[in-house]
Amino acid sequence: MDLHSDQKRAAEKKANIFAADLLMPKIRLKKDFNELGIEGLTLLAQKYQVSEQALWFRLINLKLVLED
């Protein structure tokens, strides 16, 4: 059962990475974030039509912000 669970988690992680890249493309997001900064988090979430939490995780994964 653990192998199946690990495979399921790995597949879900890949799907999440794909979705984040599709919804928040790296180059565009980096450009927008550089222009607006952390103060524009809400505006960026609205622009990309994602939650602020999803945007925050993407910014962390792209190393545009540091995780606390």
Please tell me what the overall shape is: elongated
Q: What does the average pLDDT come to?
A: 93
DSSP summary: helix tally: 4
Gyration radius (Cα, Å) is 14 Å
Number of strands: 0
Describe the biggest sheet?
none
List unreliable stretches of 5+ residues. Answer: none
Helix content: over 70%
Distance between the termini: 34 Å
Domains (count): 1
Strand residue content: under 5%
Sketch the topology as an H/E string, one letter per element: HHHH
Structural class: mainly alpha
Overview of this structure, please?
By secondary structure, this protein is an all-alpha fold. It has one domain (2-61). Helices cover 75% and strands 0% of the residues. The chain has four helices and no strands. The chain has helices at residues 2-23, 26-36, 41-48, 52-61. α3 packs across α4. The radius of gyration is 14 Å and the shape is elongated. The mean pLDDT is 93.
